[in-house]
Structure formats: C-alpha cells, structure tokens
Design a protein that fits this description.
The complex is a heterotetramer of chains A (113), B (356), C (233) and D (338). By secondary structure, chain A is mainly α. Chain A is 48% helix and 2% strand. Chain A has six helices and one strand; from the N terminus they run βαααααα. Chain A starts with 13 loop residues before the first strand and ends with a helix. Chain D contains seven helices and 20 strands. Classes of the chains: A mainly alpha (113), B alpha/beta (356), C mainly alpha (233), D alpha/beta (338). Chains in contact: A-B, A-C, A-D, B-C, B-D, C-D.
C-alpha cells in the first residue's frame, strides 16, 4: 500500500434530516417553551456563567435541535440557575424550568445507554 | 427534471464567438498532463475545419496558478497578462483563445477590473512598458478553447466516425459534464449557458449522441484549490471534495466524465485511484473507475483518432471499457509504446482499481 | 476604523469584492472549504466589514485565511454582489506584505509554494512543468504517472509535445528573451520583493522554531495539525 | 351626469377605489388586462394572519360594482394630455377624457426561474408560494406522494441585488409562516423548515402566528439563505444553506420546496410611466410625491396611485390606500371646479 501522506477528511455539513430528535421531543412535552426561542441572544448576553465559560442558553437550545447534545450538555453544568435569563427573555421562556428539564431529559437518555 | 427549463436558461446565455482568426495560448497544466489534447484542438481547428489559429513560441504562463497560490501579487499577474495581449496585438489578432480555465477566468476578471478602474489599466500599461517596451490592445473577443469546440460541435458531429452511444444497446452513453469553476462562476454571462447550467460541454455531449447526467453535486468544485493541492499537507481537502462528487454521482451510473478545465480531469482521474487504494472503493463497473476525459479527447474519439494518439494511456483510470462501449478499435499491445513503436515497459498495476 | 482596514480598502479586490454583507450564509453553504476545514467565509467577511483592526490583525496571523481554495463558487451566489473569495485573496496578500503569514502553519506554506511556482515561472515560463513535477512529492500522480516520469522523453514525444524544443508547441522551450521579460516584470511589479519578504520572514521564523531552512520548508510542505478540522469530526 | 375617473388595474386596490369613487358620486372606468377582476387575490386561497378565505373578501367586492364601468381583457393603448384633461384610449377601441387617473397596477410576482440555482421550472418538486395557493384553492390532491420533509425559502427575488430587487417584499415572511402551518395541516407527519434571513413579523397578530407556528405546528426555523438546490436520482431535492446561528453549512433532503417569490413592479409600470410622464424609483415602482404624507399622489396633475404599484404592501394597507386615494381624487376634482 502506498503511503500518500494525506487522506479523506470527514464532512462537517449538518445533514439535518438525519438528525433524530426523540429526546428533544420529550423535552418539548416537559417544557413546551423550548420551541419558543427566537435566538435573540438576550439570555447569553446576561448569563452570569457565560462571562467566565462558554455557557450560552441560545446556543444550547440550537445545538440540541441540531442533535449535538454531546458538545452542549457539559456547558449546562456551569449554569447557577440565577434566573437572569428568565428576566430578560422577550418570549417569556421559563428558562429555569427549561434548563432543569434539559438536565432531566438528557440525563435519562444518558442513563438508558 | 424538466429539460425545457434548462433550455430556457441556455437560450438566455448566448455567447458571441467569432468563427475564425484566433490567437492561441496554452495551459501549463494541460501541457504537462494532457499535451495531446491541445494537439487535437489545433488538429481539429486547423486541419479539419480550416481555421486560422496562431501560436507564438514567445507566450508564457499567464501566472494564474502562482497568483491563486499567492506566489505573485496581482500587479504581476496583470502585467504578464498584458504581455500576452501585447503578443496578440503584435501578431495582428484581436480574438484571443486560451486553453486554460484559470487563465480564462483571470483574463475576464482583469479586463473587467480595467474597465472599472481605468487608473489600474494605466498602471499596468506603464509596468509593461518599463519591463518589456511592449504595448497592447485588449482582445475584442475572449474565448476558452472549449467555447470553440462547442461552436463547431455540429461540424464535428458531421465528420464523426463514432458516437457517444453504447454500440450494444444502442442507448446514449450517460455522461457527467464537469465545468471548471473559473469558467462562469465569477462572470456567468461570459460562459456558454451561464453558471448554474453551463451548456458548453452539455452541447457537445448532446451533439455527439450522449446523454447528460445531472447529479446533485454537479456544480461542486473538483477540489484543486491551488495551494490545497500543491502543498502536500493540504491534499485531504482536494481529495475530499472529489470524493464528495463521486459519492453523489455514483447512483446515476455514469459511463464517463467530460471536463473543460485543465486540472479537473487530472484530479477526477487520480483521486479515484487514491480513493480506491485507500478505501477499496471504485465507482465504475466491475472494479474499474469512471473514465475522465478532456473535451478534445472526446472529440478525437468521436472523429476516429487512435486512443493512444490522444494520450488516453496516461490516464490512471482505464479507458478501455468506454472504448468498448463506443466500439472504438484499439490495439492493447500499442498502449504503452513510445514513438515509432518503441517498446516501453508497462506501468505497475494498482491494488484496488482495475486497469488494463 | 484602523490602519489595516485602510490598507485593505485600497486593494482593488476589496473594492470589487466587499460592498455590504448581510450575513445570509449563501457563501458558506456551498463553500468546499467550509465543509472540511474549521472555516466559515461569512465570518471572515464580517470581520473585515467590522473594520476592527485587532480582529483583522488576528486574521492575518491565523490559519483561517489560508483554507480557501479560490474556486470562487461563493461569487455566483452572493445576493449583494460581494466576492468573499476576493476578500480572502486580499487578506492573504496583506499577510504576506506585512510578514504575518509565518505566524500560522498554513501561512508558512508560502515558502515551498513560492519556491516551486516562482521557480517554474522564472526558469521555464510555466507554472507547472514536467521536469519539476516529482512523483515522490506527488504519489497521487499514480503508477501511470510514475511510468510517464520514467519514460518522460518517449511519452511526451509520442503525445506530440515539444518538450524543451525550439518553436511553438506544448512544453516548448520558451525563448530566453521571454524569460528575461518575465523577470523584469517580477522586479517591477513586486513579485521579486514578495520572494524576498517570504525568504527573510521564513528564515527568522525557522530560527525561532529552532529549525534549519530545509527542515522548515519540508515541515511546511507536509505537516498538518488536527486543529484545522472541525472539532466534531 | 357624473364625472368619469379612469382606474387602471382591477385588483383589490382598483376595485376598492372604484367603489369609493362611485360612493362619492363619480363614474369610475375600471380597466383590467386579465379576463377576471381581483388580481393576485383572485388566485389566493387564505389570508394571513387569521387564515380567512380570500374569496370572503373578494366576492362581495366584485358583487358590488353597480355604477362602475369595468372592462376586463382590456389594456391601455395610449394616454395623452389635452389641456387640463387626460385622454385615455383603450385596446377595445373605446376612449375616455378624464381629469383624474388612478394607477392601481399592483405588482408582478418575481419570476422564480430567474433564481436559476433554485431550479424552479427544472426540478418538479420546486414550487412557488403562488403554486401552493393555487393547489390549496383548487383542493386538488397533492402532486407528490410521500411528502415527509418540506422547505420554505424566504426572500426569493427579494433583498437580492443579483436578481435586480434590492427591496424587501414585506409580505413573504408572514405568508411563508402561514403556508407552513397550512401545509403542516395537510401533511401532519411532515417536518417543515423555513429558511429565512430575518423574520419580519411587523403586523398585528403576525408575531402571534409565528409563535403558533413554533409551538403548535413545530415549524423549524433556520436562519440562512438557501444557496443551491439540486435533484437526486428519484427526483427528491437537496437544499444547501448555512445554518448561520450554528455557523455550519447544512444540507436538507426535501420532498417539496416552496419558493417565496417576492413582489416586483408590474410589467406595465414603465410603459404607463412614460405615457403620463411620471417617475419610477430605482426599484422600478412608481414614485409618489412623498412616501410619508401623500403616498397616493404623483408629481403630475391628476395622476394618483393606490396599492402595490408604489411598492410591496399588505392587503389592508392596499385597501386603506385605495380609500385614501379616492378621497384625494375627490378633493382634487372639487378644487378644480372651484
């Protein structure tokens, strides 16, 4: 076999129809507000944890919708449930309950595996 | 697929291509990898069609590959191009045809830039005068060599000995056409058929009896990417983009690929070999690859030239299955010979992709 | 508004290629580099448009401006008639001019690239030339390519090329006067100066990295770190 | 005998203005080039934001045309100024001499095939917003079975300099959201995506509709302009965009794609502008005296506008502008008599 010194690179394109979201469906049942996010970024801008970490609730919700929970869930550990995001959310999302629900639903998923 | 929809778009991108008197400049990559294709281009235009196509030994690279690899500044490439135009002007021509798509894109861009920024053109004229004491006129018409073959596709069809038809089944061969990115993506109106559904190669395929295959990644780049290929560390990019195209065209079972860019036929050919050697996957029938051709090679086959005069022995993917389908005769024993039948040893066989 | 942005805005490719970006992402959607590298052309255009000199400086020193393949597929699609590909070309030129290219692994590739390409153009008048196209550097040339190299004169003769011969034809010997003209053009238009900058900056960087120039150049040609690819791959 | 006023264009603006002019004591002469009155509205199924049937508005309007002379299948052949009047000659041989003309020529839908990369007219599963409304209205069975993934492409021919339309067409965002909900009702198992650049939910109850689309219909919104559409072997589509909030290229395999064609100036705009010697903006729509205080008044004596002839408008905006234009004409004609 010839050593070419390079090889195929995996694609990073989101193939969105391949993403199966049973857990996100369960999340919507527990906290329907998860569907209400308009990605305005108010939560991220005001996040106490976000000042020191990569925590960003807008990004967390989006990543879960894109099936990227693995890289996302660790961010949630930085959340201190201070509730500032709930104060600023223009869509009135119950962010506290949403964050706790994400924890529950995805932890359950984790346990199933 | 609604064919009439494409026809409507094609009708909106008609390019004016004069019939005769061309100043010809060659392509660095094609001279190195497909010299017989350029020979065939001149053979068809001069000897078959009786056209006046002039070439001067003094012309050089346009510098395009160096420019797109950031090895020379923009002013340098513009001044080299100005020198090429000066050679055309001195030879008394005003129609300029180039063999290379990178050149074609650059010439188009440079002339557009000069139109928009006249002070830039003045600067380049000054540079050229200082460096060479030459002066130039910009070409009245600029064409890529494939534009000319497209223009004369029906004349070629009239003289055809073979057609892009499966001799056994009588059905048209399924042909993937791959257009060089710099042909029309920057200036859609400068290409035959525009940027989204270019007709320059599709027209040849139809005229010569084949059927064009439109697959999802048809418009995607072959992945040359200049530095992304030239530097070994980057070649994963190049390979991966070609891989993406083949994965996309595979279900359509194409019989062959026709290209109009210098690098693309080389990459589409060689990356099939690398993919096969690295992953074991081949895209043609029975362990072969999908043969890839330049438009002159296809024209040469249609006109009945010997495949080994066309340089098809220098492809890594075997062309024989396609020759058999078309009914083109060839002598396997002559494939790897030099001039006057001089015997050369044959190349080694790859492990995973079938060759002849 | 800053000095780097001012310099960029003088570049015809920025004048031509950056009107006003609306961050719609049509460029990134079809970009061959965005799929395989940690790369997003929209973000680069957005940074240049911000005119933030600190951010532009970071770009000039980073790998990210060297991922583009200059296929210009983005140009076809932009609804605002921008050309992200041209913005990249301008950034690269400035990175070379100011010597920042040596600060990134991909930027350091300028040395082998310029040696090969300027060498081919000045010595032979071609960007690519069979005599300098080494099978060892290009294993994908294939077994048929290896064969072609081994029988270079016979094969090119058989195919009707005029390798190294006087007069017109493929791979003809380009007259010395023409090569001299190319050299004069290089001197007048800045290509020679670019070579000097790249040589000098690379020498400094090699010393800093504790490498000989040969080691530095070989590493630039072959080394690729995993950081260029997307994290999820 | 009451005074004539010529109204050119028999869509909602023209009909409504004609009725108001009649109520003010004039005899409107309403000219429509199509065989039926109603314009685009006649081909539309339901209206945002509440989803009411378009015909419940249009039918009573069309049933109430007493005292209005209207001509369908008729175009304007010429308009000439004669002293302080306008002489309007029609393609049916008739002519009228009036002191006021109202231009209610509306808009043309952007020809989606001009966005070549979306493949309208080439790929069978690519349709437009208008095609979808026609489908809803006729109630005809869907053309394709197995519709599981549906995409909506916002801003087709809007906010697009390459397509020659820099402007926002205003109504497509909310129309897309409306249609996304409607198609979700037809295909409850389908996943529906909207590819948008900005969601311009400016009108009353539009934001509510958006919220409903998210919460009740589960419509998925992706911020990114579609870059390319292609077709698979089986005729299904590949849609490429960047998920710009996520920062990654994305590919969607879709069974149906709906292009939200925007509003462009009606084909007759330039010709009419030349006939009466008025200006159009660089967007190609008629240019009123002021976009703020008198959007229905032109720079020329006796020439008035209403509706989308002066730029993209919603239906209620069009209707109120029609009334306002009728009042402005009444005022103008009364001032002349004094």
């Amino acid at each position: 076999m010839i050593d070419f010194g390079y090889g195929l690179t995996p694609s990073s394109t989101l193939k969105i129809e391949d993403v199966r979201l049973p857990a996100f469906g369960e999340l919507l049942r527990r906290e329907p507000d998860a569907a209400k996010c308009i990605a305005c970024g108010s939560c991220a801008a005001s996040c106490s944890a976000g000042v020191f970490t990569e925590m960003n609730l807008r990004r967390v919700i989006l990543s879960l919708q894109r099936g990227r929970e693995k890289e996302t869930l660790p961010l949630l550990r930085h959340c201190m449930l201070c509730g500032k995001c709930q104060l600023v959310c223009p869509r009135g999302v119950n962010t506290r309950h949403l964050i706790l629900s994400i924890g529950k639903v995805y932890q359950l998923e984790e346990d199933k595996r | 697929m609604i064919y009439q929809g494409k026809q409507k778009i094609w009708s909106e991108y008609q390019k004016e291509i004069p019939t005769d008197h061309w100043f010809y400049v060659r392509s660095c990559i094609r001279q190195t990898f497909f010299p017989a294709s350029e020979k065939m281009f001149l053979e068809i235009l001069r000897n078959r069609l009786g056209k006046d196509v002039y070439e001067t030994p003094s012309h050089t690279t346009c510098g395009g590959i160096a420019y797109h690899s950031e090895a020379i500044p923009q002013e340098t490439v513009m001044t080299i191009i100005a020198r090429q135009f000066a050679l055309m002007t001195e030879a008394g021509y005003e129609n300029y045809v180039c063999s290379c798509i990178t050149s074609f894109g650059l010439y188009t861009e440079v002339m557009e830039d000069w139109r928009e920024f006249p002070e830039l053109e003045a600067k380049i004229r000054e540079n050229l005068w200082k460096a060479t004491k030459r002066e130039f006129k910009t070409p009245k018409y600029l064409a890529h060599a494939s534009d000319l073959v497209y223009k004369f596709r029906n004349e070629i069809a009239e003289q055809a000995k073979f057609r892009l038809v499966n001799r056994e089944t009588g059905r048209p061969l399924r042909v993937v056409e791959h257009i060089g990115c710099h042909y029309a993506k920057m200036f859609p109106s400068k290409g035959v058929g525009g940027a989204e559904y270019p007709y320059v190669l599709a027209g040849m395929v139809e005229s010569w009896g084949g059927e064009v295959v439109d697959y999802p990644e048809r418009r995607h780049c072959c992945g040359f990417g200049f530095r992304q290929y030239l530097v070994k560390a980057n070649r994963g990019y190049s390979l991966s983009n070609t891989h993406k195209k083949f994965e996309s065209m595979e279900p359509f079972k194409p019989d062959m690929i026709i290209t109009n860019c210098p690098g693309c036929p080389y990459f589409l050919d060689r990356w099939q070999y690398v993919i096969a050697e690295q992953t074991g996957k081949t895209y043609g029938e029975n362990g072969y690859g999908i043969p890839v051709f330049t438009y002159e090679e296809v024209a040469g086959l249609v006109l009945g030239y010997d495949p080994w005069d066309l340089g098809l022995q220098t492809h890594q993917v075997a062309v024989e299955p396609l020759l058999d389908k078309m009914g083109v005769p060839y002598k396997p024993e002559d494939k790897y010979k030099g001039l006057n039948g001089k015997r050369l040893q044959r190349p080694e066989f790859p492990m995973n992709i079938k060759c002849c | 508004m800053g000095k780097l942005y001012d310099r960029l805005s003088q570049d015809y490719r920025i004048r031509e290629g950056l009107k006003a970006c609306i961050s719609c992402g049509t460029c990134t959607a079809i970009c061959p580099a965005a799929e395989f590298y940690r790369y997003n052309p929209k973000k680069i255009v957005s940074i240049v448009q911000s005119r933030d000199d600190d951010a532009i400086l970071e770009l000039l020193k980073s790998d990210v401006i060297w991922y583009c393949g200059e296929c210009m597929s983005c140009v076809t699609r932009c609804p605002r008639k921008n050309a992200p590909g041209l913005v990249i070309v301008a950034l690269r030129a400035l990175s070379i001019e100011l010597g920042y290219f040596v600060e990134s692994e991909k930027g350091r590739q300028q040395l082998p690239l310029m040696h090969a390409l300027q060498g081919n153009v000045l010595n032979y008048g071609y960007c690519v030339y069979p005599l300098t196209f080494a099978y060892e550097m290009h294993p994908e040339y294939g077994l048929v390519g290896k064969w072609q190299k081994e029988h270079i004169e016979d094969v090119y003769e058989r195919l009707g090329a005029h390798l190294g011969q006087v007069g017109p034809g493929a791979l003809r010997k380009i007259p010395q006067e023409s090569l001299d003209e190319l050299k004069a053009i290089f001197d007048i238009t800045g290509a020679t100066r670019w070579m000097e900058i790249v040589e000098e900056k690379s020498r400094e960087k090699a010393a800093e990295m504790g490498l000989t120039m040969e080691e530095y150049e070989a590493q630039a040609f072959t080394k690729t770190s995993s950081c260029h690819l997307n994290p999820e791959n | 005998m009451s005074q004539n006023v010529v109204v050119i264009g028999g869509g909602p603006a023209g009909i409504e203005a004609s009725r108001k002019l009649r109520d003010l004591g004039y005899t409107p002469i309403l000219i429509e080039k199509e065989p039926v009155l109603g314009g685009h509205l006649a081909r539309w199924d339901r209206l945002f934001p509440d989803g009411v049937d378009a015909s419940t508005f249009l039918d009573p309007m069309i049933a109430d045309l007493d005292g209005i002379k209207y001509f369908t299948d008729t175009e304007v052949a010429s308009i000439n100024r004669l002293k302080d009047t306008w002489v309007v000659k029609l393609s049916n041989g008739l002519s009228a001499q009036v002191r006021a003309i109202l231009l209610t020529t509306g808009f043309d839908l952007f020809k989606a095939e001009k966005k070549e990369e979306y493949g309208y007219g080439i790929y069978e599963r690519v349709i437009t917003n208008a095609d979808l409304e026609a489908w809803f209205k006729s109630g005809a069975a869907p053309q394709f079975d197995d519709v599981k993934v549906i995409g909506f492409v916002h801003c087709v021919g809007s906010r697009d300099e390459k397509a020659g339309n820099r402007q926002c067409s205003k109504v497509c965002c909310v129309t897309a959201v409306k249609q996304a909900c409607e198609i979700k009702e037809k295909f409850p198992d389908a996943t529906v995506y909207c590819f948008y650049m900005d969601l311009r939910m400016f009108g009353r109850k539009y934001e509510d509709l958006y919220l409903k689309a998210q919460k009740e219909y589960g419509i998925r919104f992706v911020r990114g302009r579609v870059s390319e559409v292609s077709e698979d072997l089986d005729g299904h589509l590949f849609v490429k965009a960047e998920d710009t909030l996520f920062g990654k290229p994305m590919k969607l395999k879709a069974d149906l794609l709906v292009l939200m064609s925007g509003m462009t100036p009606a084909a007759s705009t330039q010709q009419l502008a030349r006939m009466v010697n008025i200006q159009t903006g660089d967007d190609g729509f008629f240019l009123p005296k002021s976009l703020i205080v008198s959007p229905f008044t032109s720079s020329r004596e006796g020439i008035f506008f209403a509706g989308a002839a002066t730029g993209p408008k919603t239906l209620p905006e069009t209707l109120s502008e029609a009334s306002a234009a009728a009042l402005a004409i009444d005022h103008y004609l009364k001032t002349l008599q004094r």
